[in-house]
């Protein structure tokens, strides 16, 4: 089988069988080979080349992302050395659609599966980092994937598979003056007016809100009217949700579990306000997904009901990256502390006493 060259590069596309065409490989000065397949080719086919192997099947539940940075570096090293590279995948340094079109000019039968293309786009949107497996976006994608696999088996995910976003380092941009959305329990507000206690509970802010495009394709006469907000606001998993998402484990940690409580988590259920003086129903969750009132499916779905919360916006001036680290840490600690989030020791400000942190932990149980 002939090799198909990518225009303008010493980069070639071909099948495993093309490795048997020694004359064509020599003419193309092939020095590096990328093999993307589960079954390894015969050792004698690649022993005279530098070989990079990505052992995946052409199915949608494979994790291709983790290999992309290493594959790109391998391909680039071959090109920089003046050799030719035979690869079974996308050409680097382009957005996925442009790369696929370039490949198809030489190899019209190239047709990556849909999930591979999504992963390539995600890698592109991440900025093609050298370190993929420790990148927050990849870790969130991996958690989402594990949740989907569990839900497909009719089970809630394991606790270790869920990323509670407010317990992770902040990844949103600093120096922004855009309005920040705040979501608070509405019943807390009503109680506050009656008791004059400062018990109103923050549920989420902008970095933890998941936006989704309304599904116009599924709109109908029964669908939502134009301009009407979705009935639910979907959120990333947050610390205060843990007792709702994993009630058995939460009871065990609190020392209130029973001998028959094995910690199994429900596939779906209610979200309750973390304020111990309120505990109102503020929304619901379904690991297998929910259809929003706009007809868009959200998977997994963890949402607060708009009718049960107050949504406000306030303009803030976030310190720029050049500001003192102590100021940034103080701002973050204050906001997370106000949400009842357990703070690690290095984030506890001078005004946060051990007693206050103990109270925060009790409120989270």
TrEMBL record:
Q: What class of enzyme is it?
A: hydrolase
The UniProt annotation puts the region (Disordered) at 205-224, 322-365
Q: What is its EC number?
A: 3.1.3.48
Mind naming one GO cellular-component term on file for this protein?
Answer: nucleus
Q: Does the keyword Hydrolase apply?
A: yes
Q: Where is the Tyrosine-protein phosphatase domain?
A: 2-126
Q: Name one Pfam family in it.
A: DSPc
Q: Where is the composition biased (Low complexity)?
A: 322-334
Q: Cross-referenced PANTHER family, in alphabetical order?
A: DUAL SPECIFICITY PROTEIN PHOSPHATASE 12 (PTHR45848:SF4), DUAL SPECIFICITY PROTEIN PHOSPHATASE 12 FAMILY MEMBER (PTHR45848)
Q: What is this protein called?
A: protein-tyrosine-phosphatase
Instruction: Provide the species name.
Output: Talaromyces atroroseus
